Fold these 2 entries.
Entry 1:
Amino acid sequence: MATFTAPDGTQLAYHEAGEGDPLICLPGGPMQASVYLDDLGGLSAHRTLVRLDLRGTGDSAAPADQATYRCDRQVEDVEALRAHLGLERIDLLGHSAGGTLAVLYAARHPRRVGRLALLNPSPRVVGLDIADADRREVAELRRGEDWFPEAFAAFERIWAGQATATEWGAITPFSYGRWDAASRAAAARMPAQTNGDAAALYYSAGAIDPDAVRTAVADLPAPVLLVAGEYDVGLPPKRAAEFAALIPAAELVVAPGAGHFPWLDDPQWLVDTLAAFLTR
């Protein structure tokens, strides 16, 4: 672990692993400690992964001003990390809600981005609404799974406006391409790794102007790879295609049989795909 100082004086931590040129990795959650990214299925064999613990998560300190948990306020934390590493430009990867932060960084500092990988990114940053029907279509693909009846019933209660913490917990298997021991363990660790108070502020009012973001990414010069999971109810592939179409420099790839965490579902596919994008 190493540390650097954010513009407001908050001490932030990052973790390096692997060989090769740095790839800054921004975790999702929102506001989950970066440890859950691990080495992204083995990508550390190709690049030095620089996992940033966002403020108030993992080994990073909590800020004095909780308003700085807002995602747009954290863009300059990423810029401070770039400067700390002494890099003119950075290759950047954002997963899920970390994709929001990555896109906001690219929109504000387009000339500082070499390549941008968006791994199952949240569509909120570009104002793309995912309808219940979109999620239902993807969820139906899992009908043959033994856990499906209970989880799908919970989804139907959510769609009917009857969501409780129990329902949200019951649909967890839909986030994974394989609901096996590794996925269950990863899901069980998530609450302890997440700063819930910070997560509640990440997308707070004023954090995102989707129209401005769309305008900015339309002129983004950096190559962009958007990875969607075939089974991801967070960003179904059809809607991921709409997201990618907003960025002329973007390429969409769909991970077969994968959910929201493709390095758990098919690590070799993900490593091969990301390594090829980052080196060509």
Entry 2:
Amino acid sequence: MRGTNPGTILGLYRSDHRRQVLEHALTAGIRSLDTSYNYQGFNSHHILSSTAGDLLPMFSVSTKVGFFREVGRVAHSLAPDRLRRAVEESVFDLGRTPDVVFLHNPEKSLVRVDPTHARDRLDAACTALNEAVAAGLCASWGISSWDTRPLIQVLDDDPFAKAPTPDVLMIRVGLTVSSDQLDASERTAERLGVPPDRLWGMSPFGGDAARDVWKRIKAATFLCPDEHGSNMQAVFRASYELPRVTRISVSSSNIDHMRELVSAETLKVDPDQIARYRQLLREKMSHS
């Protein structure tokens, strides 16, 4: 078995929940799982505990709360009571205390809301998760945001307001993320007081590592000249710099793919090329 890899997280949004997938992850050296209260039709936690409960202690497990069942649909909510109950159910269904519980895409309930009310909603939701940690329902809490632009607007509207500081911030990363999204994520981390070593990323391939675009991009440009890796490895490694994060959640059910991503961790990135790319993105946005 390979040594453990602290950077690569097996994301279960698109990965199936078979026991074999978790065994593949362990063999590849992955020791972190990321799931959510609403994944697999709100059954992810139960499936994991019933099919691979004995494997879960070998992983650090993060999950998310924020999406809920309603009659005929799935709805988003930042209501503290609903969040608290979802955390309690998550602990029961997983059969263990999560290492991190994320507030799942809070921007969904902040858009088209008066800024003052939006900030009140965010603060109340953050307080609920902070209290869940104090109650021993999870080891830490964080915010997972697919699009931080609405989030930073709320945070910037009242710069003197102070919600509890999340332990972790998870954001979109990689070559599919726009310049304004990259900037917003960096500002969000700064406003929330999340240090660089507690920034995590997700969706480095924009949801599909098999897309033709990843074959056309010469991602090796982002690596130092003496570094050699596959195009997929170069895309994945560059994602750690766009914006800079310490861990990335990525979906996969294939052991070879997992191994390829884990081994990409050691590749060295050319910081000048990353800076040039960020500048090109800004110029493109300014002319659009």
